[in-house]
Amino acid sequence: xxxxxxxxxxxxxxxxxxxxxxxxxxxxxxxxxxxxxxxxxxxxxxxxxxxxxxxxxxxxxxxxxxxxxxxxxxxxxxxxxxxxxxxxxxxxxxxxxxxxxxxxxxxxxxxxxxxxxxxxxxxxxxxxxxxxxxxxxx
Length: 138
Fold this sequence. Notes:
Helices cover about 70% and strands about 10% of the residues. By secondary structure, the chain is mainly α. It has a 3-stranded antiparallel β-sheet.
C-alpha cells in the first residue's frame, strides 16, 4: 500500500479549482455593438469539456493510490489536457473578429493547477522511493 499524504490534497485542490474554473467568466469581449462577459462554456466548448475532464481525472487519480505509475500517468495526462485547454481557449477567442478581448485573472487557475499536478508527481515519486527503500530492508 502506498503512503498517501500531500498528493491527495494537491489532487483534491486541482479537482475543485478546475471544476470551478469550468463555470467562471473568463473573457470580456467587445464587438461593434456590445461588451459581453463570456464563460468558459460560451467562449470555447472544447475548453469547457477539457476543463471538466481534468477535474474528473484528478478526482479518479486520488482513488488510485495503490497504483503509483498510473497516478503519475494520469497526472501527466491532466497537465497535457490543461495546456491544450488553454491553447484552444486563446486560439478560439482571438480567431474571431472582436474589437477588443480581455482575459480575466481567473485564467491563472490552469497555471496553478499545473503547478499542483507537478507537485503531485514529485510527491508520488518520493513515496515510491520510500517504499522501494522499505522493500530493500526486508
